[in-house]
């Protein structure tokens, strides 16, 4: 079975954390904070993220105003879980692109870039809002290889109406900037490709169950199971069960 998006994200973060050592540029933190805080397109909150540990070291109290959650309860697993399922896959692709982008430059230059992308996240009231996440590298501990990033998250629901998130690399000084980067699709966007019953049948098939066993476990007839199997093959344009399973895993349908 494919790894969960949050586990994939951790693998990417581990890769970044174990690359070249980055020096501590803590003296510039206040300058960066003011730069980001002064140019927000909507209500915002900020956090400090421990990249290696995938842990929010702190979250500002404004998260309650923007998203409706108590800052004491708002941690990284909750935050990632609240992000729209389609946007989780975009974020994985963005993080992979960010890793490649940084790996191609001298480590000192990495502190000169602001990274930004948007995503949808569920508000405490149950509705989704669109957030613009802008990040800078805050510090790097050469002993523990701990990277801290400072991020400002602004509500841009009122500004952006199209669905697809975009990634940009913005130089903080006079260097080259890259907007709306064409990101390689390393991970596939999950679609509601199968019905609920089809997913149940497919997952039991992946566990090695034959049609009779599936019918008993789901309390449906063997004929119904065979019909689902036929529809699964037709829906995925597959000639065999192994081909169908491979397509489902690659495309994130299950």
Quick overview of this protein structure:
The protein is elongated, with a radius of gyration of 22 Å.
Q: Which stretches of 5+ consecutive residues score pLDDT under 50?
A: 19-27
How many strands in all? 6
In what order do the strands lie side by side in the largest sheet?
2-1-5-4-3-6
Q: Which CATH C-level class of the largest domain is it?
A: Alpha Beta
Give me the Rg, rounded.
22 Å
Query: Describe the biggest sheet?
Result: 6 strands, antiparallel
| Architecture per CATH nomenclature, i.e. the level-2 architecture of the largest domain | 2-Layer Sandwich
State the end-to-end distance. Answer: 8 Å
Strand content: 15-25%
Q: Secondary-structure element order, as H and E?
A: HHEEHHHEEEEHHHH
What structural category do the secondary elements indicate? alpha+beta
Overall pLDDT confidence:
80
* CATH overall fold name of the largest domain: Beta-Lactamase
Give a description of the structure.
Mean pLDDT is 80; it is low at 19-27. The chain has 254 residues and is of the alpha+beta class. The protein has 2 domains: 5-171, 2-Layer Sandwich (Beta-Lactamase), CATH 3.30.450.20; 196-250, Winged helix-like DNA-binding domain superfamily/Winged helix DNA-binding domain (Arc Repressor Mutant, subunit A). The N and C termini lie close together (8 Å). The chain is 38% helix and 20% strand. Helix 1 (5-17) packs parallel to helix 5 and helix 6 crosses helix 8.
């Amino acid at each position: 079975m494919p790894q969960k998006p949050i586990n994939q994200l951790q693998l990417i973060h581990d890769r970044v954390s174990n690359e070249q050592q980055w020096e501590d540029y803590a003296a510039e933190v206040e300058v960066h904070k003011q730069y980001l805080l002064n140019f927000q397109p909507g209500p915002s909150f900020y956090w400090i993220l421990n990249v290696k540990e995938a842990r929010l070291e702190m979250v500002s109290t404004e998260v309650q105003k923007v998203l409706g959650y108590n800052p004491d309860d708002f941690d990284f697993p909750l935050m990632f879980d609240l992000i729209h399922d389609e946007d989780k896959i975009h974020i994985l692709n963005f993080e992979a692109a960010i890793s490649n982008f940084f790996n191609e430059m001298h480590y000192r230059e990495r502190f000169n870039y602001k990274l930004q992308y948007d995503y949808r996240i569920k508000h405490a009231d149950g509705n989704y809002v669109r957030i613009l996440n802008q990040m800078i590298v805050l510090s790097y501990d050469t002993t523990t290889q701990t990277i801290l990033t400072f991020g400002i998250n602004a509500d841009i629901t009122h500004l952006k109406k199209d669905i697809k998130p975009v990634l940009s690399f913005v130089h903080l000084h006079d260097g080259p900037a890259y907007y709306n980067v064409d990101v390689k699709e390393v991970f596939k966007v999950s679609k509601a490709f199968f019905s609920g019953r089809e997913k149940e049948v497919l997952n039991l098939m992946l566990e090695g169950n034959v049609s009779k066993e599936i019918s008993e476990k789901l309390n449906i007839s063997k004929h119904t199971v065979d019909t689902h199997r036929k529809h699964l093959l037709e829906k995925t344009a597959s000639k065999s069960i192994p081909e169908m399973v491979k397509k489902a895993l690659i495309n994130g349908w299950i």
